[in-house]
Amino acid sequence: MTFARQDPQAPVRPTDQDEIAASGSELIGGPIGRRALTGRHWWSPVRVVLLVAMGMFALGMVQKLPCYESGWFHDRTAQYVHACYSDIPHLYTGRGFADDLTPYFDRIPQTVSGGMEYLEYPVLTGVFMEVASWLTPHGGEMMHRQQIYWMVNAGMLMVCAAVLVVCVARVHRRRPWDALLVALAPALALTATINWDLLAVSLTAAAMLMWSRSRPFAFGVLLGLATAAKFYPFLLLGPLLVLCWRAGRWREFGSALGGTVLSWLAVNLPVLVLARDGWSKFYTFSEERGIDFGSIWLVVSQRTGDPLEHANTYAMVLMALGCAGIAALTLYAPRRPRFAQLAFLVVALFILTNKVYSPQYVLWLIPLAALARPRWRDFLIWQACEVAYYLGIWFYLAYTGSGDDHHGLPTEGYQIAVAVHLLGTLYLCAVVLRDILVPERDVVRRDGSDDPSGGVLDGSPDVFVLGRRRDHGYGYEAPEGDREPITGWGPSSRPHSHAG
């Protein structure tokens, strides 16, 4: 299939670059023509993507209907058979929200929580949960209150999903349609209302939008808020540190780090001072938690019979080694990697080595994958693997919870589902790594761009690299006398710059 040339200043149309997008467009009339009117009109890419995302979110809510009608509790096995489980109604009663207990400050009765003394979520997520409980009418049948609490949370999470897709659409000025990968991701529709992860995911996307606009302090403030909702966004500071090291952008990194620390402290410090035991529960629980569903460690433990009591240490060592490898890759790559590529790799590494992989953790990677590797084939392969795991975990829980009848997926089948998830994530990591090592394969850089969503990093010359380069293209300053003429990869070929 051949694709038409496009104005280097115009927004990138996926049907001009992607075979899958071009084939899929046949459902709505085929790829856009050369003479089509593509100027300013109400149906902008951002609005279209937002509408699609809201439609997919609504379909995800419909998929939870069997559990909603039964209140999630009347038939516990049914919530697994129908793959419509959600933590939200369970924690409404199990963490004291139904009894008007204040998170982190009030101790949860053992008879209610099953052994959890305090809420085991970061502070900003706890605030989100508490606000939803204020909006839930009290009184009446508990099942009805649980339904309303889930519905209120679903509405608030839909706002987070809207923020997410809008931010992803605006991160790269010329590639707003890449956000359609996020909007149409089946795993987003299936997992959006399982837990509260979309809050941190949307804040992280907003932070990356600020970085793409060369506003490092605003990036840091939003990243600190995201970290106050979930731990994983903090990992993005690692790739950013190495990229700024290679580009010599220490001032911008310091501004980003300062904003992160300040906003995280603003949220956490009051609770830390006034309710230290409740505040620390998230961190102690994360450290003490044993191996759990979805992790490679669980499969190893089940296959060998070894409880792997030191899995936490193993995971930390592998994570440290992987981060060191990503740092070396960043400093050695022929061109400085794009921020989104490294952000995806480091979060994927955390997921692959972690002690647990809950189904909703896929939300962490969806926007990063869309920015790092905006190719429909690779994205859909990975999503198929994640949907397979989504079904696998619920059918496995149905099997273990159905008594002697054993309806569902046995242990061996569940282990295959975990392997499919791991292999799918590794596949996407592999193609991102290939794009870094062979930048000509990176679809985002086909127009000669450096890092269009990289903010101050976009177009910055390198000041520190490892090894010598054959290709002294954009993002690497070769020593005097060792420079070669470049065609198609230099500043003159770039349509615009966001640096400064």
TrEMBL record:
Belongs to the glycosyltransferase 87 family. The chain crosses the membrane at residues 42-62, 148-171, 183-210, 217-241, 253-275, 313-333, 379-399, 414-437. Its main location: membrane. Keywords: Cell membrane, Membrane, Transferase, Transmembrane, Transmembrane helix. It comes from the Bacteria. Coiled coil: none annotated. Residues 446-500 are annotated as: Disordered. It is found in: Cell membrane. It is a multi-pass membrane protein. It comes from Streptomyces macrosporus. The lineage of its organism: Bacteria, Bacillati, Actinomycetota, Actinomycetes, Kitasatosporales. This is Glycosyltransferase 87 family protein.
